[in-house]
Fold:
Amino acid sequence: MNATIAPSQLGGIIQAPSSKSHAHRLFIAAALSNKETILHCNTSSVDIEVTIQCLRELGAQISEETSNDSFRHIYHISPISRKDNPHAPLLLDCKESGSTLRFMLPLSAALQKEVSFTGADRLAQRPLSPLYEEMQAHGVALSPMGTFPLTVSGALEPGTYSLSGKISSQFFTGLLFSLPLLSKDSEIIITDSLESASYVQMTLDVLKLFGVHVVMKNGRIKIPGKQKFKTPGEVMVEGDWSNAAFWLCAGAIGTDPLSCGGLDPHSSQGDRAILKLLEQFGASVTKTKDYITVHTKELKGISIDASDIPDLVPVLSVVAACAKGTTKILNAGRLRMKESDRLATVSDMLCTLGIDVVELQDSLIIEGGKLMKGGKLSSHNDHRIAMSAAIASLACTAPILLTGAEAVNKSYPTFFKDFESLGGSYITD
Structure:
C-alpha cells in the first residue's frame, strides 16, 4: 500500500494503544497457568495474533470476544496441556515477530514439544546466539541457524546459562518463562551489561503477577524449578509507551497540543523515557491524572543514549530533525538487527527529506532545525519507519509518498485511522 501524506497539524486527545510487549508476556503467562485467565486489550496487532496462534498450536485454548468499552478485545485463555501432542512435530509460524520466536524457542523445549519454526522476511537472519548455543548445551537439538524451518527437539534441562546482555533482552524473557517449569533450579549469568533492561523487568513483573518467584541480583538471575503459574483471574494490558511516543513527538514538533491517555507513568516500560527526552529537547510536557500533554517550544539538539530505548530512535530522529543544532543518538548498534537496519533506514529517511545525517556504526549525528522537503520514502517493511515517516510529514513543505505503508499493521493497525482523527491528511492507493 502506498500512502500520500500531506503536511498537516495534529492536535487533540487520543488513547494509547495496548502494549505489544506487555501483551506477549501476559498471553504466555496465562497459557502456562493453572486455569483460565481473562485478558483485556484495547488493540491488537499482527505480532500479538502471531503469539496467540503459536500458543494455540502448543495446546492453549484462546477465544476472543469484543466489547463496547475501551478494552475492545477480551480473550479467554485456557492453559496448555503438558501432555505430548499427538500431531507432532508442530509448525509454529512466527511471521516477522522476533519476540515470538525468541520467547517460544526455549518454551517449546521446556514443554517437551517437538516443533518446527518458520517465519518471514528478515526473521531467519535475526540473531539467536547465544540463546541457541545455550539451549544446545542444555539438552536441546536444533537445526542450523539462519534458515527456516528451524527444528527443535529434546527437553530443555535446568542448570547455569550464560548470556550476553548486549544482543537481545528477549533471550532472557524466553528463558525466564521456561526455566521455572523445569524439575530443578537454574541460574542465568549476565556476562556483560544488560541493555533494554526495562523489558526484562517487565517480564519479572508479569512472572510475579502469576505467582512465579525469581531473584535478579548482581548480574545473576536465580530461578527455582518446579514452579506453577497461578492466574490472577483477570488482567489488563498496559497502554504502550512505544507507540504512544509517535503522538507525543507529534505534539513536540507541531503547533497544537496533543494529549495521550491510558499511560502508566510508573510502568516498567523503558520507553516512558520519551517524556524526559522531549523535555530535554525543550518541549512542554504536562501531566494530569488521565492525560499527558505535549506541545512545542523552541527545540534544541541533545545527546541520547539509546541502549535501553532502541524502539524510540526512529521517531526521536524526527524530533531531532526539527531541533536546532546537533543531536547525537548513541549506543544504538542493535538497531541494525531489527525489522530493517534502522540506523540505515532512519538515515535514508532523513536524508531524502533534506536533513544532514552522519551514520556511524552504532550512532547517528543529526543536524536539525530546518523544514523538511517531502519526497518518496520506503517503509522498508518496518512499522516504526512507516510511522516515523508519517510524523515527519508534519514538518514538511511538500507531501511524503510512503511505499509499504501497511507495515504499521505489525504493531499498530489503526495508526493511520488515529493519525486522521487527530487532523492528519493522507490518501492511499
In short: The mean pLDDT is 94.
